[in-house]
Queue: 3 jobs
Job 1
Amino acid sequence: MPRVCASCPSSIDVDREVDRLRGGTQVTSPKAKVKKIAKRLKVPEGFQRSGIRPEWMVAEVPVLPPDASAGAGWWPLRHVRT
């Protein structure tokens, strides 16, 4: 399951998403909807400005099994550090 979650952001096309949301603000008339779209637009525009790719936002952290707790000693943790 973690592999599926890590691959989801890589399928997002930031430029296309920004264009889609900007087009929605021009078509929509109620102020509440325009405000909601403007809030939603902040994140993709931030990605565009900074050059950060969405898949970089997912951290891959090794998960230790329950028996590798601190009480088990240093042996299980030795293999994780290498």
Job 2
Amino acid sequence: MEFKGTKGELKIIGEPYQDETYDPPTEYHGAFEIKNQQGEIFSQVHAYSFWGITFERAEANAKLIAAAPELLEALNGLLKVVGGFQLSTWEEELSDMANKAINKALK
């Protein structure tokens, strides 16, 4: 299976923007922008007080999304390396978990 999504490095650019129009001021809405190498917006991860999603949680989610293509590539590479070796039960379980994660991303 081949990854058909955006290729290349993704980065969180700048600080999250915050929508200042919320009233009362204790409520918030903002987002982290994830951009590709050409500077195009790939995705946004939003923080909403209404849903209990803090900026800290949104930033952690944005970092995971930005790292996903590299994580997928690394995981595929590791599975190719260990593919020819005899694996312990624990290593087999990890290999199965890795394959399930790859299938989740690619199917």
Job 3
Amino acid sequence: MLNKKGAQLAVDEINANGGADGKKIVVTDKDNKSETAEAATITTNLVTQSKVNALVGPATSGATAAAVANAGKSRCSIGYTICNSR
């Protein structure tokens, strides 16, 4: 939830300043239920049907691996967060 709010705050600020290369950014929120297969399906749908340019997430390592594999096939950028509890 905090990642989503932080992303939206950043997008709101970018859009208020003219967007990215003059284009507004739109946040689309999807829940992969922390399931690898669901993450793969959602990623495929986002990059092939919705034609997104970039993805942020998912949060778990298995879901991230599935998302990276599918995003990479369409040359879509993907970012994800890493937490360490040292």
